[in-house]
Design brief:
This protein has about 240 residues and is α+β, with helices and mostly antiparallel strands. It is built from 2 helices and 12 strands, in the order αββββββββββββα. The chain has a single domain (about 20-235), classed as Immunoglobulin-like (Sandwich), CATH 2.60.40. The protein has helices at about 5-20, 200-235, and strands at about 25-30, 45-50, 55-75, 80-85, 100, 105, 110-120, 125-140, 145-150, 165-170, 190, 190-195. Strands 1, 3, 4, 5, 6, 7, 8, 10 and 11 form a 9-stranded mixed sheet that branches. It has a 3-stranded mixed sheet with strand order 2-12-9, with no helix packed on it. A hairpin with a 6-residue loop joins β6 (about 105) and β7. The termini are far apart. It binds calcium ion (CA) (3 copies). One calcium ion binds near residues 28, 33, 34 and 41.
Length: about 240
């Protein structure tokens, strides 16, 4: 390799190192606008009706050579249920992929749904970049607001997390694991689904305004009513007259 060529290689690689961003995962409450390998607006809450189904996305950003992943999707079982999932999006986007879906509801654990997939392709077909790990169909089953999260949980109470998002790269290294317990330690974005209910703060503001207007209206009508009553009494003919 000539010195000039070597310099060109160094210069070309330096910015790529500097730009390597932290891998992030999360839930987009509304899948519209997302494609397999590109994300639109990440929505934190949607409103659906009881009996209505809706697609949310488990997304990933800035990953390198992802080959397998798993996460527990936590939700409020009285409000929504998980109907279906599709993991053949980001992981299946590159040529030669052979994505296997091993997701399912955890036994005897209301409100926890195991989403798990790996790319079994030979030769390997790992995926890099950003996109949709899984498109999950949820259904409204009762009024209320359900959190949708990908928690890191300590199930046996020994202060060490034993369940949570786990991402493996093509070399079987855990992606985004800082403390060495294999579980993902990077940023995780949660979402909410409101069934026949308001998404929260915004709605509460409107409700408070509605109440204030109603109270003002009541005060006004009482005042007008009071004036009318006073006027009627004054006009009443004098019984003695
Ligand atoms: Ca969205
Ligand atoms: Ca793949
Ligand atoms: Ca960890």
């Amino acid at each position: 390799m000539s010195i000039v060529l070597a310099l060109v290689v160094v210069v070309a690689e330096a910015p790529a190192q500097a730009q390597q961003a932290e891998t992030r995962i999360g839930i987009d409450a509304d899948s519209s606008g997302n494609t397999d390998t590109a994300l639109g607006t990440i929505d934190d809450c949607v409103v659906v009706g009881e009996g209505e189904t809706h697609e949310v996305d488990i997304f990933i950003q800035d990953v390198t050579n992802l080959l397998a992943w798993e996460a527990v999707l936590k939700f409020e079982p009285g409000v929504i249920e998980i109907v279906d999932e599709d993991v053949h999006l980001f992981m299946a986007a590159n040529e030669g992929s052979d994505v296997q879906d091993v997701s399912g509801e955890l036994p005897d654990t209301d409100g926890r749904y195991w989403v798990q997939a790996f790319d079994a392709a030979d030769p390997v077909a790992p995926d890099s970049g950003s996109g949709v790990l899984a498109r999950v169909t949820v259904k409204g089953v009762g009024p209320g607001v359900s959190d949708l999260s990908l928690p890191v949980s300590d199930l046996d109470g020994d202060d060490n997390p034993d369940e949570g998002p786990l991402l493996r790269d093509v070399n079987v290294n855990s992606i985004g694991d800082v403390n060495g317990d294999t579980l993902f330690d990077g940023p995780i974005t949660d979402a909410r689904i409101a069934v026949d209910a308001s998404c929260g703060n915004e709605g509460d503001g409107i409700d408070a305004l509605t109440v204030a207007v109603a109270v003002a209206g009541l005060v006004a009508s009482l005042a007008v009513g009071g004036l009318a009553a006073t006027w009627a009494i004054r006009r009443r003919p004098n019984p003695t007259g």
